[in-house]
Amino acid sequence: MDGILNRSDISKAKRIVIKIGTTSLTYDNGHVNLNRIGHLTRVICDLMNRGKEVVLVTSGAIGIGVDKLKLPGRPSTLSGKQAVAAVGQLMLMNIYERFFSEFSQTVAQVLLTKNVTDGEESRQNAINTFNELLSMGVVPIVNENDTVAVDEIKYGDNDYLSFIVAQLTKADLLVILSDIDGYYDKNPQEYDDAILLHTITDLSEKIEKNAGGSGTALGTGGMLTKVHASRLAAASGIWAVIANGEKPEIVYDILDGKEIGTVFVPEKK
Ligand code: ADP
What distance in Å separates the CA atoms of residue 198 and residue 186, rounded to the nearest whole number? Predict the structure, then answer.
């Protein structure tokens, strides 16, 4: 059964949320990977031309802020992180804006906090705004509002945020791009014999048991948060795929139903 569970249905996805992590957006030395961002934006513009609607959930504000300010690492204090995020978010959006404008694609910045999407009225406002932007052919670029979010009102990680965005926008497909090919039965950075899990149909919490933390200083959630977000998405009827963002063109293969990455098969669709 592995890998043949109607992957071709994914090709019908109209509304797609793509999430990209800090490790995919930056080099090991902390500088921005412009080549990667260039490929990602080109793929998104092309998907829009195909008639898809795309929402991009992007990490990277703090990582890019650290680099821009030439700091030795992430600040340890909350105010330090928030200040760095304020610098980095602007630079991140500036980079996206420049790449997207090459293809005359309009983008919008949407900064969310958990209390906004938890509150009934503010959640509905966020939904309306997403729908309005998508109907205008704009690509919303979403991040957590790190500059004001404190622990009590934090999503925790952008993988979870990408699930929330997929839910708010009633997306058909969530693609989580990472620095690894997908979800393995154990951490492949530690075990040579780790096997890639192609298809996940069990959406219970126990499927998270083989997922570990991040292998890098910049990555935050690791595989655990990706599997968590993907299973929640699939449980809400949304196809979810964890795949390697090294070549963002992988999104085409996912839409072609190729056996690539780890697919979480939705329950209700
Ligand atoms: P990103 O910046 O893309 O969000 P992370 O570094 O947070 O990336 O998460 C991906 C990392 O999770 C992998 O590079 C790997 O080191 C780690 N990991 C832990 N357990 C697993 C697993 N079972 N399968 C795949 N990767 C795993």
Answer: 13
Using DSSP, state whether 93 is helix, strand or coil.
Answer: helix
pTM assigned to the model: 0.94
Max distance between CA atoms of the chain, in angstroms, equals: 50
* Average pLDDT over every residue of 77-89: 94
* 247 SS3 class: coil
**Three-state secondary structure call for residue 141:** strand
Taking the centre of ligand 1 as the mean of its atom positions, its distance from the CA of residue 184, in whole angstroms, is: 9
The verdict on the CB of residue 211 being under 6 Å from ligand 1 is yes
Which tens digits make up the pLDDT trace of 187-212?
A: 998 899 999 999 999 999 999 998 88
Task: Verify whether ligand 1 is closer than 6 Å to residue 183 (CB atom).
Answer: yes
The answer to whether the CB of 156 falls within 8 A of the CB of 225 is yes
Nearest to 196 by CA among 265, 260, 267: 260
- Residues 6+ positions from 25 with CB-CB distance below 8 Å: 32, 33, 36, 37, 58, 59, 60, 63, 64
SS3 state of residue 173: strand
Is there an atom of ligand 1 within 6 Å of 22 CB?
A: yes
Determine if ligand 1 sits within 6 Å of the CB of residue 199.
Answer: no
Residue 109: its H or E element: strand 107-112
- What is the whole-number distance in angstroms between the Cα of residue 135 and the centre of ligand 1? 34
The CATH class that applies to domain 8-264 reads alpha beta
